[in-house]
Amino acid sequence: MGSGKSKPKVKARPSTQDYKKVPSVLSEYPPPKVPSSHRRDVVKPERLKRVSRTALMVPVDAMAESYDEFLNQLTRAAQDDVEKVWSIYIWLGSMTSELVTSQGGSNTPMGYLRMVNDRKGDMTSFFTLLCRHCDIPCVMLHGVTRTESACQIEAAVTDDMKDKWAAVYLQGSWRHVHVTRARDPSVKVKNHFFLTEPDEFIFTCLPDIPEWQLLHTPLTAHEFLNQPFCSPEMLSNGIRIVNPKTGRIRKKTGKVFIEISAPRQVGQNLAVSFVLRGLRVIEADSCVNGFAGVKNNTEKDIYDDDEELEVSPSFPTEFPPLLERYVYQTTKNNHVFFDIVLPVPGIYQFDVLGDLLDNVDDFADMPVMCQFKLISGNVPFPGQLDPLPIAPSLGWGPTPYLSKLGMKTLSHRGGHIYINPEDVITIKFETLDDYQFKVELHHDIVTQDHLEDHVSHYAENGILSVTLSVPAEGQYALLVYAKREDGSLEDYENVCNYLVLCSNQASTETERYPKRVLRERLEQTTESGTYDELWAALEDFQLHNVEDRGEVDRANQKLHYFKLRRGLLDTLKRRNMFVLKESIHQARSSKFEAELQPEIQKAEDYMCRLQRLAGYLHPIEKLESKVIYEIRSYRSPKPVIQDVLTAVYLMFGEPIEYLQEWGYIQVLMAQSGKDSLQKKIASLDPDDVAMSSVKEAEDVLKPYDLRAVREASPGTAALYVWVQNICKEKRDPTPRDSVTKDSSNTRKSLDTFRKAFIPMENSHLKRMRREHLPTVAGRRA
User: Fold this and answer.
1) Cα-based torsion angle of the residue sequence 12, 15, 20, 23 in order, rounded to the nearest 10 degrees
2) Rounded distance, CA 376 to CA 256, Å?
3) What's the pTM value of the predicted model, to 2 decimals?
4) Four-point Cα dihedral 650, 651, 654, 655, nearest 10
5) Which of these, 157, 256, 255, lies nearest to 205 by C-alpha position?
């Protein structure tokens, strides 16, 4: 049995290549198309870490050698093309002008690095040259890039946005690599721009040739420029903009709603804040026949022809101070919501700031995560223009910062509280005993001294209770502070805030701002929200006694739809045909059958697939342990038997280099429990099999047919047919029109297996022992 893999070698290249002229693309390259797999299936971070250490240890003197000698050193730890490309990428990111020497000729890596230093070459061309030397197809793409230094949502492409990057062909797909970002000091940015997913890369870069976006539906230049700006750190952390999908938001009413979401692990440690800036007020002379025509420097209307905004005949001519007090920010279920009221017609810029809590010292210093341009053509309705009492950096309601301190709310989970003037309410938190607390009540006009008697608190047995009342109608801000027992007075930190609203009457014509927010949020989430968002919006709506005008019934119906849909999608993950069948029946029996038709069809197709997979497994389940043991006992099996077992273990992701040793296969076959061969076959999901493994297995089995395998070993024949079926399933997971239609295919699969699987009598076992096992004398020796 071999002890390791052979070192990858870089093929020699003719020495006549002109290194000064690197063509952008070569004619023999495959055309661009959407990648067939995800980045996570290609990039293995732990393996790249190991490769990085080797690549960064290559001595500077090696660059003065030939390209072949240098690349052999640079990629000596790489086991596949992905790791070779990463070695080149990470090495280029470490290059500085101080490393450039006069050693080596012009046709060496050091020679080209000198050209880069003299501005006669560039890193993207150098990267392309190195990849092609490793027999890895690489093209250079020209286009525009939106960078952090110019992240405004522009109306047109400018010269400073023009850029160049690369695309490499790996594992059957083209993938983007932004070589200059390899020099970014942020590890997350560096990793993000290596084989970036096309739907993430398009937020930053737009190639001149649309096909090289590698998207099913390429974006136009107008669509690209109108996207929200999203930072690489935001995208690499899995944070996404839920609403809206455009970065230029036009509203006639002056009301804007923005929502972002984060994966659970990130959301629980995410600090978010914002900055709202007024860029330009729409002036009266820009109104024509009651419409605002907002012009840019080229006098071209920035609105679409059919999206002109009506402007009030009289409106303010300047932005009010403290614009941040017109933004209501809340956090719930790893989603952050911004309800914005634009107080005067004009153009605004809204920046969402964010970072992981572990990195935050000051909320105002956090980097920009995403950015929007807001355009309002009218003054909001009366009652909407009241600014909030304060604009806390944490936002309103519980946030991840509260959880980080070991606290959680027990009573009020939203960002606002309704109260009558004569009411006294209690807000409760579960907390650690080693904190001291203080609470404050603020109002826009009433001084804090006059409000001290209306708020108090006490902590006992790990529970913080805050008692609250208000002197009159209006909007108040309740701020909760905490500090360690051994801290000074200055150590108090703001940990939670609530917007407190007091009113004796609720007008059905014009609701006060927070109540209207609750109604609008429930309506919006009923129309386009997720299950969790809708459930939370309905809970808040009912908790604060907002008048029901039919919204509750519509929300409950939508929740029932979500439950049916979630039931269908959840059963797809469980691979249980009986549960799946029941979910399909419930969906078809409901009033939402038409809306759920895509999910129903997907579930029925998946049931057909499960039936096929069950058919593939039927003969494998009949394989007796002694048959597996017999095959494993062969000292020198026939090539066909070893190749079939090689193909089997390729399905489980084993490297083909190791499987060339029969001893390695014997070790794998000796495993028991969940790692036994039969258990691994039974639990395999074809979706987990890499296409590269499928291709390798097909190449290994290409010389054989079922008859030849059966003659060598009937037990191996069952494994042979199973591998062929998995490869076929992976390449063409053909859906079926109905469960019934697939029954005949299942029976055909079973029949094929039954022919392949011939019960092994003792005579068969004896014949195989004679052919594959050493003699008794040999074994004794």
Assistant:
1) -50
2) 9
3) 0.61
4) 40
5) 157
Other beta carbons within 10 angstroms of residue 618's beta carbon come to 15
Q: Residue 769 has which token pair?
A: 């022992």
Element (H, E) at 71: helix 67-74
- The token pair at 118 is 């003299």
The answer to whether 260 and 242 have CB atoms below 8 angstroms apart is yes
Q: What is the total residue count of the chain? A: 781
* Percent of the chain's residues with pLDDT above 90: 27
pLDDT tens-digit series, residues 158-203: 777 889 999 999 999 999 999 999 988 888 899 999 999 999 999 9
The rounded distance, in Å, linking the Cα atoms of 465 and 459 is 6
| Torsional class of 171: left (φ above 0), alpha (ψ -120 to 50), beta (otherwise) | left
Q: Is the dihedral of CA 742, 744, 748, 751 positive or negative?
A: positive
Which residue stretches of 109-210 are H helix? 109-117, 123-133, 187-192, 198-201
CA angle 449, 450, 455 (to 5 degrees): 85
Closest C-alpha to 369, from 352, 349, 350: 352
Task: Quote the CA–CA distance of 449 and 30 in Å, as a whole number.
Answer: 74
Residue 351 corresponds to which tokens in the numbers above? Answer: 């920046």
- Token representation of residue 636: 């020198």
Q: How crowded is the C-beta side of 299, counted as CA atoms within 13 Å? A: 0
Of residues 620, 693, 682, the one with CA closest to residue 652: 693
DSSP 185-223: S-HHHHHHTEEE-HHHHTTTEEESSGGGG--SSPPPHHH
